[in-house]
Amino acid sequence: MVKKFSIGIMLFLCSSPLISQISIVNSMFNAYNINPEALIYANIMNNSGVDQDIYLEATLYNGLNQPVNHVVSNVFSLKKGLNNTAQKGITVKSCDYTSGNDAQYIKTSHQLPSGKFKYCLAVRSTANIEGDDICEEFENESTSFLF
Fewest Cβ atoms nearer than 10 Å: which of 58, 97, 100, 129? Predict the structure, then answer.
């Protein structure tokens, strides 16, 4: 009985570091509203028990898996619990577009052209706490003919 209890406690202790303390619940990516700020909008859960200083990195890739746009936020404080980055007034530290046609189209029209894309968002901690990342693949159909 004591042996089973000890094994159970050991399994619990070994598995607890695998639970991310900061996790992305969902992104708020919108193919028809592409701007640097919108690329870092997400709902993020902070289960660490204390406020954390973090920053976000978002990258948009084209169908050939080549980066089209890369955005990095300034460091901000992530409060305990659920955080909506769209409501926090987070500012962009850097935004880089490549020189390709997709990037130029996004930069001027603020929406995606037709084609396949991948959007990735990563949470980075300044205190070496494990963050989180997500990637979403999708195919966009341009609706510019409707305007």
Answer: 100
